[in-house]
Design a protein that fits this description.
Layout: H1 7-10, E1 33-37, E2 48-54, E3 58-66, H2 72-82, E4 83-92, E5 95-102, E6 108-115, H3 116-131, H4 144-155, E7 165-170, E8 174-182, H5 187-193, H6 198-217, E9 220-221, E10 230-232, E11 238-240, E12 247-248, H7 268-272, H8 285-301, H9 317-325, H10 327-334, H11 342-351, H12 362-366, H13 376-383
Parallel strand pairs: 3-7
Antiparallel strand pairs: 1-8, 2-3, 4-5, 5-6, 6-8, 7-8, 9-12, 10-11
Helix pairs in contact: 6-8, 9-10
Length: 385
């Protein structure tokens, strides 16, 4: 089985500003990730409920402001009625992502504008790939309607570490998802800067696991947990974002119809669906999210300088070592065990476990002794350094 890309190539490149309804100077566009958009409950206007068929888990309710019967000029002005300074800050496979500010509250937002025609085209291509038994990297799926649905589920009561939905506006041409915005970058930016200490990692990783625990408590599988989707505000608050690959948890597990995210962060059991013959028939979404958190934890503990492997499959020699010998042996062979405290090694070894049912749950992770440590002296003493 071949990977689609190396670890480095899996990571998104920074995207600059593109336009503002014409031309715009890049310096005028606020920095940050467009996946983090704005929400203010007081500005939610005249939404209704509708049902949009979904390929994965049946019909899903999404808060909707419909402008299907409006003339083109009216449709274009819907966003302008409530938001100003609309600027395109990123392109997506479904359309554009814009920055804006609410006219009344001044709240900063990011708006995903997704072409309904492109959504239908991608759904059809995905269904055909699964039906024809295509390789895993041709069966990946991202669905804006599913994203809108799970964000609505997560919006009540909401969580500090989960990006919040403001509203969804749709017409016959586009689906608009208005979300919370933050301009502090993401965890990958911090990893790339090489400034992480174990205490700093503890602060960030706790928030990430809290976000995953909240999603799971609401029955939501994120599906694409990665450093790029863990946005960081200017006050060092994590915001879990990009729910395009999310779904409602299925007790029976997911199959080939739900392959989401970057292969480097994927749980190995997802790729095992595509072995010949398959070594598993389904995977648990909650356990897969935990594995992805473990990969981010590994990168945090090693300062982002060492990746655990290139591809989470037995064909990769470093993954094979981790799967057969465990995390601690893997760290020893790589010569980095002494860089990590013993409690951190212990926690990591209980997350990156090949057997999904043996992985810690988010609650169990947060109860681990590592989270009770603070200060490098305490970490070093515990590790015997």
């Amino acid at each position: 089985m071949e990977d689609d890309n190396t670890f480095e190539m899996e990571l998104d490149e920074p995207v600059g500003a593109v336009e503002e309804e014409g031309t715009v100077n890049e310096q005028n566009v606020p920095a940050g990730d467009a996946n983090l958009a704005a929400v203010n409950e007081n500005t939610q206007a005249n939404t209704t409920q509708f049902t949009e068929p979904n390929f994965e888990h049946g019909s899903v309710p999404v808060p909707r402001r419909s402008v299907e019967d409006a003339p083109p000029a009216r449709k274009q002005s819907v966003l302008r009625q409530n938001y100003r300074h609309l600027r395109t800050i990123r392109q997506s496979i479904y359309g554009k992502i814009k920055y804006g500010e609410h006219k009344v509250t001044g709240e900063k937002v990011a708006i995903k504008i997704c072409s309904v025609a492109l959504i239908a085209r991608w759904r059809a291509a995905h269904e055909a790939a699964v039906a024809e038994g295509k390789p895993w990297n041709e069966c990946r799926i991202e669905d804006p309607y599913a994203e809108a649905h799970v964000m609505q589920v997560l919006a009540e009561p909401g969580h500090t570490n989960v990006v919040k939905l403001h509203e969804v506006i749709d017409d016959s041409e586009n689906l608009h998802i208005v979300m919370e915005f933050a301009n502090g970058g993401d965890i990958f930016d911090i990893l790339r800067a090489g400034v992480l200490t174990e205490d700093w990692s503890r602060h960030l990783f706790r928030q990430l696991v809290e976000a995953i625990r909240y999603c799971h408590s609401r029955g939501v599988v994120h599906g694409d947990v990665s450093p790029e989707n863990c946005l960081v505000t200017n006050n060092a608050t994590i915001k879990l974002a990009d729910f395009g690959g999310s779904a409602t948890h299925s007790p029976g597990g997911f199959g080939k119809e739900r392959v989401v995210g970057k292969s480097f962060y994927m749980a190995p059991e997802i790729l095992m669906l595509f072995d010949d013959p398959p070594t598993v028939t389904a995977y648990d979404g909650f356990a897969a999210d935990v594995w992805s958190c473990g990969i981010i934890f590994f990168l945090m503990l090693t300062g982002g300088k060492v990746a655990p492997f290139a591809f989470p499959h037995i064909s990769d020699r470093w993954f094979k070592l981790l799967a057969e010998e465990g995390v601690i042996a893997h760290l020893e062979v790589r010569g980095i065990k002494e860089q990590v405290s013993l409690p951190a090694c212990h926690l990591l070894s209980q997350i990156l476990v090949l057997e999904p049912t043996a992985r810690l749950s988010p609650t169990q992770i947060l109860e681990h002794e590592w989270f009770k440590l603070q200060g490098s002296s305490a970490a070093n003493k515990t590790s015997g350094q």
